[in-house]
User: What shape does this take?
Amino acid sequence: MENETVSKNFIENIIDKDLAEGVYDPVHTRFPPEPNGYLHIGHAKSILLNYGLAQEYNGKFNMRFDDTNPTKEKSEFVESIKADIKWLGADWEDRLFFASDYFGQMYEAAVKLIQKGKAYVCDLTADQIREYRGTLTEPGKESPYRNRSVEENLQLFEEMKEGKYADGEKVLRAKIDMASPNMNMRDPVIYRVAHMTHHRTGDTWCIYPMYDFAHPIEDAIEGITHSICTLEFEDHRPLYDWVVKELEYPQPPKQIEFAKLYLTNVVTGKRYIKKLVEEGIVDGWDDPRLVSIAALRRRGFTPESIKMFVELCGVSKANSSVDYAMLEYCIREDLKLKRPRLMAVLDPIKLVIDNYPEGEVEYLEAPNNMENEKLGTRKIPFGRELYIEREDFMEEPPKKYFRLFPGNEVRLMNAYFVTCTSFEKDENGKVTCIHCTYDPATRGGNFTERKVKGTIHWVSATEGINAEVRLYENIVDEEKGVYNEEDGSMNINPHSLTVLKNCVLEPELANAKPEDRFQFVRNGYFCVDNKDSKDGELVFNRIVSLKSSFKLQK
Ligand code: ATP
Ligand code: MG
Assistant: This one.
């Protein structure tokens, strides 16, 4: 088959083997976020990987909120996470779950371990437990409570559930091996007392399961086959396997770890994004300078571009960091042929064509996308007064400057050739207006009898519409790196946001809707802001400029 030439990643190899050996069938994956923040580009990788595998193998994909820790979780995050995953296109059908719905089953599972002599209630304090655990080079010491009878453990655990003990007074621990070379296996705590209100179960519970105990149970209950997580859980896998084995699940799920996605010089960790939000350095979790999914969406990235990006990154066992330029490459590739290319002047200066009839408006036809005829053509109004970019005029041009300067002729894109005759300045010496004459014979701009070296874009001063445009740079000062080595603080780039209030756009753009994307010729790709745009008051975010130094390695 043609498609077979694409090499598979290591997870696909594991699944192929499992299917061939009849270990699992069908494949069933899940995405299990903790609802304690917004999702980011790294989570997108995990979502698309898990969903993609389910699709590839004709299996199922579950959405599960891992909400076993009541301290940091909020319903606000549950909603944002659902919206982000839907937008990315991962479909959990009717399988939306909450780990907190399994608290009853987790409790039963703990009782089962006690009955098997595989768990005990321990009265050591958190500090003592740490002390007893030993170190990487020394074995741990057994807790004096380790050999309590099954009956006593059952009774104490029930009392923990009934609220007889204060937070930290007692815990339930798995009875595994205090001498294990793997610290996670030295009788880990699996249940703790915490008198806290849970965002879904309220005050029903005052004991909560620990992640390493809860997660394998959640997977097993849902019939997950391949439980894919990131590398930091590799050392926890023996405990995962121990839990599903001791609880005697008929088809124990398999944990597989892959490397997290990191972007060079970009803040990805939930913890750090939260800090930027809380300190008011950015405008919320969806500030277009962030790489949360909501922010990428608001900035103008498409689900297709994010999918292409994570596919290019691949799946690996080795941590590495990818350049943000690769993400920019993906959005350019996605929008290049799909979206119209229009003219927008971001830093306008007036241009008057003195030999053009006053009050006249003519419509010039132009292709919407030179590289894709299917996008059709449009009519652009032209007249005596236009706006051009301030940087497209120079009073005293340096060598190789081919745009407008006194005496020079340029092409106004899709329109006419114009020659600069004079210009006006204000009392501060700032150029306020440029005067030109046009040559009617050059209509359409494809005139071949005379060559001009510069082509500039423009917008009719009378017909154009106004908009705000926001330009972005990395929120991180790239020279210094993300974190300050001395105190761990972030190095912030003070120029990460530029707001341009007086931009002028082709009137065609008046009907643009939030999240519509366009190329503005010479200026980049832009997206209508989905938060601050109102009817008649458009705000555009620059997604990315047109040029890149990034080259895809083939
Ligand atoms: P963060 O470290 O950014 O706060 P997290 O791992 O605490 O993220 P969870 O909600 O626990 O966030 O993660 C849900 C899933 O997303 C987990 O399976 C986790 O392994 C995966 N994930 C988190 N960050 C990344 C990343 N950078 N790359 C790939 N997968 C990730
Ligand atoms: Mg986490």
